[in-house]
Specification:
mainly alpha; 3-stranded mixed sheet; 3 strands; 208 residues
């Protein structure tokens, strides 16, 4: 796959000031994935540069940060016990943010079509539940009252009338879904139009 996400540490050759006033003319800031004010201007149409920019944003400022939290927890505990809700909420926010590029910002309503189009097939029957039971409940109420999350790689499954899945399994599904979305973006006109619009909107609201 051309747009495989890479969460390995990146070499940072910049040395920004950590304190004190900046005096005199400052160089144009380099592209920093988590600072939209440094994002390059959107291209007139979707091309390789634009897709690679989105890849870096997803890779470095969203999924890479979640990956770091997961790796730290696994190194200490061996699984995600006592880190589950923090990771789960982050995953739902990441899914919301990434899906808003190709499918619009719709208060989470864009999540089911994103899952159906890009997630592994075993998640397709549960697309609406993930939005309604997981995204909405976790983000707004923290705890899950009708579903279950596991601190491991448990596969998605139906149980007691709803679904459960392991957070490590869901993280990998989200990574695969994001990679698939980037691949589709290269030739899907609707995804291209929506992604450019969302990118311009986010960049336009950023303060320098």
């Amino acid at each position: 796959m051309k747009y495989t996400l890479d969460f390995s540490p990146k070499v940072d050759v910049s040395a920004p000031a950590v304190s004190g006033a900046l005096v005199g003319a400052q160089p144009q800031p380099a592209f920093v994935a988590w600072q939209p004010s440094t994002w390059p201007m959107a291209t007139a149409s979707v091309n390789e540069d634009f897709i690679c920019t989105l890849k870096r944003i997803f890779e470095e400022s969203i999924l890479g940060e979640i990956s770091n939290v997961i790796d730290d927890a696994l190194a200490v505990h061996g699984d995600l016990q006592h880190r589950g809700h923090v990771v789960a909420i982050s995953l739902m926010c990441a899914l919301d943010a990434i899906s808003s590029y190709g499918y619009g910002r719709k208060s989470g309503k864009q999540i089911p079509p994103f899952i159906l189009a890009h997630f592994p097939s075993e998640y397709h029957p549960h697309a609406n539940e993930i939005r309604d039971v997981y995204r909405n409940t976790l983000v707004h109420s923290w705890n899950l009252f009708e579903a279950a999350i596991y601190p491991d790689k448990t596969a998605v499954k139906s149980e007691n009338g709803t679904i459960g899945f392991g957070l490590l399994n869901f993280f990998q599904a989200l990574v695969q879904g994001t990679e698939n979305f980037l691949e589709e973006l290269a030739h899907n006109g609707t995804l291209q139009k929506n992604s450019l619009q969302r990118y311009r909107q986010l960049r336009g609201t950023a303060k320098p």
